[in-house]
Amino acid sequence: MLSATGIDMMDILSQIQEVCRYAFLQRAIIAGCFMALxxxxxxxxxxxxxxxxxxxxxxxVSFATVAIGLLLNTQPIVVSVPLVALxxxxxxxxxxxxxxxxxAAIGLVSSFGIAxxxxxxxxxxxxxxxxxxxxxxxxxxxxxxxxxxxxxxxxLVVLITMxxxxxxxxxxxxxxxxxxxxxxxxxxxxxxxxLTALIVVLxxxxxxTMLVSSLIVLPAISALQVMRSFRGAIALAGIFAIASVIIGxxxxxxLNYPSGGTIVMVNFIFFxxxxxxxxxxx
Amino acid sequence: MSLNIIEVKDLSVRYGGVEALARIxxxxxxxxxxxxxxxxxxxxxxxVKAILGLxxxxxxxxxxxxxxxxxxxxxxxxxxxxxxxFLDQRFPATAREIVVSGVYCCKKFPKRLARExxxxxxxxxxxxxxxxxxxxxxxxxxxxxxxRILLARALVHHPGxxxxxxxxxxxxxxxxxxxxxxxxxxxxxxxVTVLLISHDSGTIGKYASKLLYLDRRIIFYGDFEEFCKSPxxxxxxxxxxxxxxxxx
Lengths: 282, 248
Known about the structure:
The complex is a heterodimer. By secondary structure, chain A is an all-alpha fold. Chain A contains 13 helices and no strands. Chain A has helices at 9-21, 23-48, 54-71, 76-96, 102-123, 131-136, 144-163, 165-173, 175-180, 185-207, 212-226, 230-255, 259-281. By secondary structure, chain B is α/β, with parallel strands linked by helices. Chain B has 9 helices and 10 strands. In chain B, the strands form 2 sheets. Chain B has a 6-stranded mixed beta sheet with strand order 6-7-8-3-9-10, with helices on both faces. Chain B has a 4-stranded antiparallel beta sheet with strand order 2-1-4-5, with helices on one face.
C-alpha cells in the first residue's frame, strides 16, 4: 500500500513493529519517555522564572565532570551527579546572595565547566571512551541500569513537583509575595535546582550535553504558546516531550539519523505548530 | 486606645555603604489608613520591604507585639506590590489560580487546596467585583482588573494589615478612583489597617487618615489635621502641604 507521498505505509508499520521487538529500543523508549516527563515538569517552572539556560549551563558543567570521570577511570555519572548538583547550588548562590543576574551566573559557571572539560581532555591526551559521544548522546545505547536510574529520578522529579506544586506556582508567579506570605523560597529554589542538576546529568546519555537543555526548554515553550492554565501547561509540555521522544526514536531508527538530534527536531516541529496555533487563537 | 498592629523601633537599612533608612521608629494602630509620601529615593519602598522582611535591616519590627520570624506562617499581612514590575502578561494562570494562591501560606505540607479555599477566593473576588473574571487568563485582563485580582489575592486570607506599594501607578484615573474606593471600604467596613505608598499626595490626602512623610528619616508622622495646622510643615512643604490638605 503506497501513500500519496510514495511511502510504503505497510513497510513503516512493520518497521515500527520491529522497533518494538528489540530490547535496546525498548530501553531507549522507556528511558527517553521518563526523561522527557521529568524535564517537562521542571521546564515550565524554569522557563517562566527566566532560568531557561540553566539546563544548558549545567550541561556544560557536566562536560567537565564527564571528563573528570573518564580521567579517574570511573563511571562519569558517579562523578557528575554530586559535582553538577554543587554547580547548580553555586549558580543559585551567585544569583541570590552575590546579587549577580541569573543568566550571568549561569554563563560564569557554564564557561568554567567547558574550559575545565577541555583542559582535562587535552592534558589526559584523549580517552578510551569517545568524549564526543557525551556531547551528543546516544539513547540507543542506554543500559538497563541507566533506564532504572532515569525512571527513578524522573518519578522523583514528578513526585516532588506535585508535593511542592503550590509553593512552586506561587514563587514562579511572584517570588516576593511568596516570601512575604511565609513560603520557604530559598529551600524550594534549592530543591528545584538540584532536581534540574540530576535530570541534566541523566539526560547527557540520552541526548548529550549539547542538547539536554532542549528537552527542558522546548516542550515547556511549546506548551506555553497555547495553554492558559498552569497545570494544563505542565501536562501539555509532558505530552509534547514524550511524543517527541517516541517519534524521534522511530524516525532516527528508520532513517538512520542521530537519535538526540532527531528528538530535538521533532520538538521544534511541535514548537512551530504550537506557535502558529497560539497566534491564530490570539 | 487602639492596639498597635505594627511597632517599628530604630529601623535602619543600608544598601552597600548608603543609608536608605536611618533609625526610623513609629507605630501603626489597628484600623489606621496611613499614607506614606516622600520624594524619589526617600526610602518609602525600602521601609515597606523591611517591614515585609524582603530586605535585611537593623532594629526591631513587631507585629502585634511579636517579631515576624516568630510566626510560622504570615497570614496577617496582605501585600500588593507595584503591578507592572513583575506581572508577566503571558503567565499561564487564570485569575482564580492567582487569587487562591493567597491561601497557600498557612497550608501544612503537603499543601492541598480544599473547597473552602476556592470559596474564600470567590468571596474575595466578589468583594472586589471581579468574580466574573475567575476563569480568564491573568494576562488577558486590563490593568485595573489585574490590580483587583492581585488585591483579592492579598485579601483572601483575611489579613489585618494591607500594604499597598504604588498600587495604581499604571491605571487610568477612573480605575484608580474605583480601586481606592474599594480599599477605603475594606478599611471602614472590614477594619483592615492600610499602609499606602503613593507619589500622588492628592490621593493620600483624600483617603488616608494619617500621614507619614519620609526622607530617609521621618519628617512628619501624625494626623492630617495636625499636619495641616503645623506652620513648621508649611515651611517644609510649601505648596505641597496645601495640595495634601486641600484634598483631605
